[in-house]
Structures are given as structure tokens and as C-alpha cells.
Design brief:
heterodimer; A: 292 residues; alpha/beta; UDP-N-acetylmuramoyl-L-alanine:D-glutamate ligase; nine-stranded mixed β-sheet; three-stranded antiparallel β-sheet; 10 helices; 39% helix; globular; B: 184 residues; alpha+beta; Alpha-Beta Plaits; 2 domains; four-stranded antiparallel β-sheet; elongated
């Protein structure tokens, strides 16, 4: 089962845990429901669609309300360190979260005590704190964009806001940045770098690019990185090898975006309904497209 | 799609202690402001402490305030409201680091996108409506996005007023640059 850990932009939203389902443009967990817009709800919506397609269990969500004060995240970290052992997950995805090194370290200690260590995937603030704490290598997959990759590549930067200017955040320098991320041990085992071209690497010599179909407008849309992380999380949870899952997810996210015919004003919820169709397209032709 | 070998095996570097990476330093004009700032921030419940400045940033004032770096935007707002804004803010881990000052501008024709650090802001130039906010990782980003998207650039709340973190601060830089570009 996949666990998704993240936040909802509502300070009054309590700690909620349970199976997540998608109804219309709302995520439902128990008696709580909230809109899919961007952030963790968009990740969850994409993961739900992918799990449905694969015939897998619905993702199990651990969510809390936080608008950047960090109090909700600290409460959820504490909850997780006490309750994570009650469930068996084969993959855990951590998402929008207030970076907090002390609580993150406690969380990783709780992971180490689990009967079976799950595959760990991180994006957004959870990826930032993994780097800040020096624990990137505890993770199996990060899904940065080019700006975040530059942050990971800058061994001195404590946050993307302080990434040094000489580490240029340019698409054509992605392979160089990836090399630097591994050099300074700020990479997870695999990286899926999202951008004009998506880059997937195992850090051991293999680097794959996925560049089509290309919808330039998706760069401006909030939530398209979240859907990519949701798709790859569910694919990995289903047992697909991380490297292959990342390639498939990059293609699926692009095809879903292509079907939505986006403009820079398109909202991510307009793409999510196409994920199922995109999965059907890519997975039915997986052999050719994944290895081509 | 293409496959190619890229990496060469390189000797890895070892990690330094990163316990200071989530701390920042507030530098003030004089010690009096440091003391006022300390009292104000402690009263608000922030985990701060007064200390001597690292050698790289000694400017005459012999005290600085160490604070949780991620909450920079929220703390700056508090100090500015009290009339004691710091003259500089730097990370403890690398006091010579500066905030990003490079913007990436992408012209989609009708739409203009500006990226600052990890944050992107897109405006419809025909209507001047904010149509998308993208990027970021701290939990105020989805909140800022919810409050800004769909509103005219001139009427939307500024990220500095509703954000709390460094991601919110980066969003403010993109927002300022967007306003500058759209006024030209």
C-alpha cells in the first residue's frame, strides 16, 4: 500500500489519516473532504487515478492543515512517529511540509524501526528537509524541478531561496547539475527531474530523457509536478522498478497534459481526468515506449 | 527518448554537520534594536537567541539574533510592523549567501511567467489576472496560491502579507518583478 504524507492549506484542518478517494474534484478521507487544486491533494488525486487503473488499493493519506506556520507539520510528524508502525506500507511519499530537521530525523528513526522498510519518495518541502538534514541518501526517489535541482546541487544552500547564482537553473545544464547533486551526496537513489525535458537517472551511469509530447504551458501550471509525483508513487507501489516507473510516469503526465490541451491558465484539475486514459496509452505500449 | 552514459565514478565528499542549516541571523543597525527585537520575538514564542556575529558579517554591531530561517518572512513582517526591520538576513551555515536575484522570464504571448528561485507566477496580460502559481515546497505555497490565483495582480494579496516561509519570500520576489514588468 502507498502512504502519502502532506498538508492541506487550511489552518483548521485536523490530522486526518485513512484511505483516500476522489469524487468529482474533491478528495474524501473518512468524513473529511477538500478540493483538489494543487499541492498534496493534487498528488493524491493522481495517485488515486493511477492506483485505480492498476487495480491496487487506494492510497492511504496522512494529512494536516498548515499554512506555513509549521505547527501542523510538527504535530503530524509526532503522530507519524507514534502511529506509522501500525500499518504496512511498501512505499511512502512525503510532500508539501515545513522543513524541520529535528522532527524529520525522528521520522526517519521511526522508519528504520518498521518491520519492512518502505520505498521512500520525497518532493517539495520534504525533499528540502532531506537535503538540509544530510539524509538525502535515505530516500529512493526525489522529483525536483530544475530550480530545486539547482538547490540540491548547491552544497551550501539551506533552501532554494539561497541557491547561489553561479549554479544556473537552466534546462541545458541539468546533466551537470545532476552530477553535482550526486557528488555532494544530496541525491536520493534515483532522481526524476521534471522540466521541458524530464530526466531520470539511477546515479550509476544511466540517464534517460523524456521530452514528448511537449506542452510548454504545463511549466506555468501549479500542480503538474504534484501529479507526476502521484503517478510515479502509485506505479512504484504496484511493484514496478523505480527507474522504469519514473520513465512511465513522465510519459503519462505529459500525455495527460497533452489531452487537456492546456494553456498557462489551465488548472491542474483539468488534467487529472486524463491520467487514466494516458496510463492506458502508455502501459499498453509500454515495451516500445519505455525502452525506446 | 534517449539513453546515454553520463556519469563517471567520482570520489564522494563527506557530509558536514548540518544542524545549523535551518537557522538564520538577523543583523540590526544597533544593539538597542537587537534587544528590542529579542524581546518582541520571544514574546511571540519564536525559538531565537542573541549571539555574537560570525566574522564574515561583523559590521560594527556586536550582537545578532539567531532565528528559524524557514520562518524568515513571518519574522520579518513582525519586526517591520514594530518598526525595527533588520538591515540584513543571512543563513547561519553560510553567512555570505544572498537571496536569489536572478529571474527567469517566459513569454507565452498572452501570458507572462516569472520564476524566482523555486517559485513561478503567471499572469494573463490581457486581463492582468493571476492565472497560476507553481513550484515551492513549504506549506504556505498552496495557501498563497489559493489566495492569489484568479485575482487581478493589482488587487491580490502580496505574498509578504500572507506567506510565512522562504518559499513565500521567493514568491514575493516573483510578484515584485511581475509588477515591475507589467508596469513597463
Amino acid at each position: 500500500m502507498l502512504a502519502v504524507i502532506g498538508t492541506v492549506p487550511d489552518q483548521a484542518f485536523p490530522i486526518v489519516s485513512g484511505d483516500a478517494t476522489l469524487k468529482g474534484d474533491e478528495i474524501i478521507i473518512g468524513d473529511q473532504k477538500f478540493p483538489v487544486n494543487r499541492g498534496t491533494p493534487a498528488l493524491l488525486a493522481a495517485a488515486i487515478k493511477t492506483s485505480e487503473f492498476l487495480g491496487r488499493e487506494a492510497p492511504f493519506a496522512y494529512l494536516v492543515g498548515d499554512i506555513g506556520l509549521g505547527d501542523g507539520c510538527r504535530r503530524l510528524y509526532e503522530y507519524l512517529t507514534e502511529n506509522l508502525k501500525e500499518k504496512d506500507f511498501n512505499a511512502i511519499t512525503l510532500h508539501y511540509f515545513q522543513p524541520d530537521i529535528k522532527w524529520h530525523d525522528r521520522f526517519l528513526s521511526a522508519i528504520d524501526k518498521l518491520r519492512q522498510r518502505p520505498i521512500l519518495i520525497a518532493d517539495a518541502g520534504s525533499m528540502y528537509v532531506a537535503k538540509m538534514s544530510g539524509h538525502s541518501q535515505s530516500y529512493d526517489l526525489f522529483t525536483p524541478d530544475v530550480g530545486e535541482l539547482a538547490f540540491l546541487a548547491d552544497e551550501a544552500a539551506p533552501h532554494p531561496f539561497y541557491t547561489r547564482g553561479f549554479i544556473l537553473q537552466e534546462e541545458d545544464r541539468v546533466p551537470e547539475l545532476i552530477s553535482r547533486v550526486y557528488k555532494y551526496k544530496n541525491a536520493s537513489r534515483f532522481l526524476l527531474v521534471k522540466g521541458k525535458q524530464d530526466y531520470i537517472t539511477d546515479g550509476q551511469g544511466e540517464l534517460v530523457t523524456v521530452d514528448g509530447p511537449s506542452e510548454e504551458a504545463m511549466e506555468a501550471m501549479g500542480g503538474t509536478g504534484d501529479t507526476l509525483t502521484g503517478i510515479v508513487s502509485s506505479l512504484i507501489e504496484s511493484g514496478i522498478d523505480i527507474f522504469k516507473a519514473a520513465i512511465i510516469a513522465a510519459r503519462v503526465n505529459r500525455v495527460a497534459g497533452h489531452y487537456a490541451r492546456p494553456t498557462p491558465a489551465t488548472q491542474v484539475m483539468e488534467i487529472i481526468p486524463y491520467i487514466y486514459e494516458a496510463l492506458a496509452d502508455i502501459l499498453s505500449d509500454k515495451k516500445e515506449k519505455v525502452t525506446g | 527518448m534517449s539513453f546515454y552514459k553520463y556519469f563517471k565514478k567520482k570520489k564522494s565528499e563527506t557530509h558536514e554537520n548540518r544542524s545549523s542549516w535551518e537557522r538564520g541571523i538577523l543583523i540590526f543597525e544597533n544593539t538597542s534594536e537587537v534587544i528590542r527585537g529579542e524581546g518582541l520575538l520571544k514574546d511571540k514564542g519564536w525559538d531565537i537567541r542573541v549571539m555574537g556575529p560570525p566574522p564574515e558579517i561583523r559590521t560594527g554591531c556586536d550582537l545578532v539574533i539567531e532565528f528559524p530561517l524557514l520562518e524568515e518572512l513571518n519574522i520579518l513582517r513582525t519586526l517591520q510592523d514594530a518598526g525595527i526591520p533588520p538591515i540584513n538576513v543571512v543563513p547561519v551555515s553560510s553567512p555570505l549567501l544572498h537571496p536569489v536575484d536572478l529571474f527567469q522570464v517566459k513569454d507565452f504571448g498572452r501570458y507572462l511567467m516569472i520564476r524566482a528561485a523555486n517559485m513561478k507566477l503567471t499572469v494573463d496580460r490581457e486581463t492582468m489576472i493571476i492565472v497560476n502559481v507553481s513550484g515551492g515546497g513549504c506549506p504556505d505555497v498552496p495557501y498563497i496560491s489559493r489566495e492569489m490565483v484568479g485575482k487581478p495582480l493589482a488587487e491580490a494579496p502580496a505574498p509578504r502579507d500572507i506567506g510565512h516561509t522562504l518559499c513565500g519570500y521567493a514568491m514575493q520576489l516573483a510578484y515584485d518583478e511581475m509588477k515591475r514588468q507589467c508596469s513597463q
